[in-house]
Structure formats: C-alpha cells, structure tokens
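Supplementary Methods S3. Input chains for the assembly prediction are listed below.
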Amino acid sequence: MLKFVIKRILVTIPVLLGVTLLIFTMMYFTNGDPARLILGDEATEIEVEVLREDLGLNDSFLEQYTNYLIGVIKGNLGTSYVTGIPVSVEIMDRIGITIRLATLSTLFAVVIGIPAGIISAVKQYSAVDNITMILALLGITMPNFWLALMLVLFFSVFLNILPASGLYGPLYYIMPVISISAVSIATIARMTRSSMLEVIRQDYIRTSRAKGQTEFIIIFKHALKNALIPIITVIGIQFAISLGGAVVNEQVFAIPGLGKFMVDAIKARNYPVVQGGVLVIAIMFSILNLLIDLLYAFVDPRIKTQYQKSSKKLKIAKEEG
Amino acid sequence: MSNKNKKEAAKQSQLHEVWRRLKKNRLAIFGLCVLLLIILLALTADIISPYPYDYQDYSAAKEFPSFKHLFGTDNYGRDILSRVIYGARISLQIGFISLSTGALAGCILGAIAGYFGGAFDTVIMRFTDILMSIPKTILAIAIATTLGPGLTNAMIAVSISSIPNFARVVRASTLTVKDQEFVEAAVSIGAGNFRIIFRHIFPNILAPIIVQATLGVGTAIILAASLSFLGLGIEPPTPEWGAMLSAARAFIRDEWYMVMFPGLAIMLTVLGLNLFGDGLRDALDPKLKT
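Predicted structure tokens for the full assembly:
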C-alpha cells in the first residue's frame, strides 16, 4: 500500500514540472514586450532595454525557464505588472473564494446528484426517472454562464429576492453555486444511475433480496458501495470543471475570486498573474487527482491486492533466483 | 469484382444495422432533426434571416420582440433573430472544425502511443497527463491568452484542449485491438505499421471515436462560447452566441430578451448533438446499452 502511495506521488512530480514548462512556454510566446507593458508608451527605448536586462528578458529561453522554475519552487510567482505586488500574495488573497465556490458547488452536486441518480436507477423508466434524466440533459447542454444570467434575470430582476453581484453573505452564494454545479449535478446523476443499474443486476443483489434483506440496506449498503468507484472518478473531474466554471461565473456575479482576477489580468495583459493563476489551479488539481487515486486504493480492494501480489511475486522471484 | 461487391455489401449491412437501431431511438432522431435544422439555418442564413446581421437601425434600438423583430433588437438596433441565425454558422463552424482537428491530432497520438508502446507511449501519455492536469476551461483560457482573440485562435485553443481525451480513448482502444488475430495476420503477410494502423486498427476502433466526437462538438461549442463571453474568443460585431451574451449582459435589467435567445440557441444546438451522440453510442455498441 505504501508502495502505491509513494509511486503515485512520484508520478505527480514530472507532470507538475511539465505543467510549469507548458505554462512558461505559452506565456513566453505571448505577444507584447513585458518591459514595455510595465513602463507604458512614454518610456524611452533605453529605459525599456534596461528593464529588459533587469527582468532577465534578454536571457535564453532555458535560462529564463530555470529562473522561473527556481522561483516557483521557492513560492515566487513573479510580480504583477499593474500593482507591483508579488503575484503569489495577490493570488492568496483571492484563491480562497474560488476554492470555496468550487468546493461548495461540488458538494452541492454530490448531495443532489447521487440521490437523484439512485432514485432514477431504482425507479427505472418511471416518471421520476424520465424527469430527472431530462433535467440532467438540460444541465449538461446549458452553458453555465448563461444559466447564471438566467438565474440573475429570474431571482434578481423579476423576483428581486437574491443579490445579483458581489459576495457579502450566504445569500450571495446561492446563484453562483447553482449555476456552477448544474453540469456536475447532471453528470453525477447520470453516472450514478448507470453505475447503479449495472450493479443492481448482479447476482449478489439478487441473493440478498432472496434472503429477505430490506430494500433500503440492499440499495445503500450493497449496491451503492459497489457502484461508487466510477462515481468517485466523476466527482474528481467535476471539481476541475467547477474550478473552470467558477472562473467564468465569477465574471457574471462580479465575485472577487481568482477567476475574475485572471480574466481582468488578461485584459490588462498582466501576464505574470495569468501564468501564476493557471499554475496554482493546475497544482491544486494535480494534488486533488492524487488524493482521488489514493482514495480509490482504499475503496477498491482490487488495487490493494494488485500491489500486494506484485510484492509477493517479487519475494518469490528473489527466493528462486 | 464479386469479392468487392461482397465487401461493399458487408459494409452496407453494418451501416444499415446501426441506422436501423438508431431509427428506433426516438430521442436520437429528435436530436438529429434539431441538429439538421440548425445546420440548414446556418447554410441558408443569407436567404432566410430577415435582416443582415450587421444592419443597424438606431430608430429601432432595444425593441421588445414583435412580429417585425421576432427576437427583438439589440442596443444598436440590430435584429437579434438574424444575428442568432448567423451565429449558428459561426458556432457550428467552431464546433466542428476545432473538434475535428483536435480529434485528428488526438487519434494519431493515441494510435502511436497504443500501437508502438514503449518510449512513444510514455512521452505521449505524460504529455496528455500534463494537458489534463489543467482544467479544460482554464487551459483554453491560457491558450487563447497566448494567441490573442479571434476566430482562428479560439478554434486552436478549443482544439488543443480536446486532444487529450481523444488520445486516451484511442490509445485504450488500440491496446485492446492490436493483439487480436487479424492484426497478427496483417503483420505476418508483411503489412507496414502505417497500413496496419490505418487499414486494420482504425476501422475497428471507430465507434468510441465517433461517440467521443459527437459529444465533443457540443463541449467545444460551449467552450468557445465561454471564451467569447470572457472576451477572449470571437470579438464583436461578429454574431457569435457567446459574444452576443457578453454584450447583452449590461442590459439584463430592462432588455432581458437580449440575453435569452443566444443562450437558448447554444442550448438547443448542444442538446441536439448530445441526444444524437447518446443514441449513436447505443446504436454503435448495443452491448453498452443496459
């Protein structure tokens, strides 16, 4: 088990290095001279050239990347062109909001999506099933920013019961969470339904029915536990989608999170901020994926035995060889 | 000749079989009809749209939907219905072109990884791991930032973000197919790698690719619309649905119809694609159907 954990952690490191290289390369080839952007149009060529030298922009690609990487490892993501404040500080101020939005949305999606999927599967082809699946389909096909606009239209403009922008209290979370999580609710409900349908047909479910077990225990103890693995995968993916959704939705609801910060930075061509934001999101997502994989190993006994087997096999091979 | 005919007949009957199963699925046919209707609208936009998409009539700005302007007019007095119809052209174009280029690249990478294995596999799969460790929307935003706004750049951003999914699906399918007897037979009669991949492996893994592609076009359309909505994709005055929504946002309090119709158009298009895609998956692989 420990071997699996260590191996999985070691695999994450080169991927993260790759992410830094990818992001650095993208921003390296972005149009516009950073020195010119910082100094503005009035600065002379000489001033710009001095700053270029200071910022290390005249170094080779490899040197610049190495410096960038060393900075990232030390937690230094560069300085904002606009405010002059370190990007890491600015991101830390805002990332909490985005993480909270994405986490709340994912939780909301789990709380609504899994029961909806279970009911749909247990009552397959019933009216409840049909309605749930139609709603799920709409959830998947609706762009979340448009749903956000429609919610604003309905609850803020027509009914005037929910605040349309900002983030000053619990009420302010309702519409963003609904619009971010709609896709996830739908996906989790569909996944739960199909996974449950598969499990419900298995022999051991029939066996427990035959021995007279109550339907409640059959569904929640026997069936759901076995149906859970594909659902966990989907939940992990949904967190990433919620992060992306939060970035877009923060724009609609004027929420001062990482997403709005990044999009504003793009418009101002404040590239260190964009670079830092993407990197932080990628790192968070990689760590989450790592945790999900580890969670699998605990939920799915097959993975555990796989690793036991290979170590036992090795022992036997050593003894023989 | 007779041999060729037999081959044709076999192919036809297989297609026929898929179509027969698809026809039974009412939702899938509904999706197909919606999709065909939107494609038709996009193709005939010049003829059927009541006004040119950029025709501005300031005396009729911000008009509520009426018989003259079914979807109303925007703040420049442009007919929203016409802009939505022209928007179909742009959104479908983005969806299909960006997805097919992404799919092509992903399929080639996935096939190479799956077929050759070894170092190819490691390098390509680590590359997709890297792309996948950035959420799709964020990756598209980052690429669009690098390239700058515009139709082509938005398409490139969307297509790159769809590569990893295809690479993974194709790699997995290639792995299951490449050890089968017919591939061994092809190797033993001296077929080259290229020939084996394209003539023998691809036709056998087409089903998951087609399904992934149909569902992917919808995702691509939404992704491109999100980019435009954030101001990173298609710029005004081009009548792209996401860009229209972005522009209409400011008027949500009084001219709510402006934010209504472009969104409905996106939803209807993606709905058609998803219903058809789901049906196609069931028709192509009856085993999957529960």
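Chain A is about 80% helix and 0% strand. Chain A touches chain B through 50 residues (CB under 8 Å).
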